[in-house]
Amino acid sequence: MSEAGRYFVYPRDVDTFAFDWGRLALTVAPEVNGARTFSGGVVDLPAGQGHARHNHPGSEEIIFVISGHGEQMVEDEDGNPLTRQVGPGCTVYVPESRYHSTLNTGDGPMQLFVVYSPAGPERLLRDLPDFRLVKAGSTN
């Protein structure tokens, strides 16, 4: 990757993590451009799909809804689920180690931008049973 390519990254330019529920293209990460204190990327969720309740031990997360509509759950400090309908422009804050889930309830695709701080939770996704790596530029 060129020097400029480290700073200006499109999802098509990086390897994508594919799952039965959708895809994650990390556009900011230690292995992509040397980011040290956070990582992030674009998540694509087809209609009716989403990721199940999970958490990221030791990391906070920001979820920004780029397009589409869905149902977002974030547990409060007592473990009670708080669920809201979300759409374009909504920013969701997920505190450190807090359980959360996202479901695309719209008729079309839902696209999110996610940020993890510190970086690292995305590496654990490689251990999921439905994980597939799609190389940059591939049409799969």
Structure, described:
This protein is mostly beta strands and 140 residues long. The protein has one domain: Jelly Rolls (Sandwich), CATH 2.60.120.10. It is built from 3 helices and 11 strands. It has helices at 3-7, 30-33, 121-124, and strands at 16-19, 22-28, 39-45, 50-54, 60-67, 70-75, 81-86, 91-94, 100-104, 110-117, 132-134. The strands form 2 sheets. Strands 8-5-10-3-2-1-11 form a 7-stranded antiparallel sheet. β6 and β7 (81-86) form a beta hairpin.
Biggest sheet statistics: 7 strands, antiparallel
Strand order within the widest sheet? 8-5-10-3-2-1-11
Tell me the structural class. mainly beta
Shape: globular
Under the CATH scheme, the architecture is Sandwich
Give the CATH topology: Jelly Rolls
Helix and strand pattern: HEEHEEEEEEEEHE
CATH class categorisation: Mainly Beta
Q: Give the full name of the CATH homologous superfamily.
A: Jelly Rolls
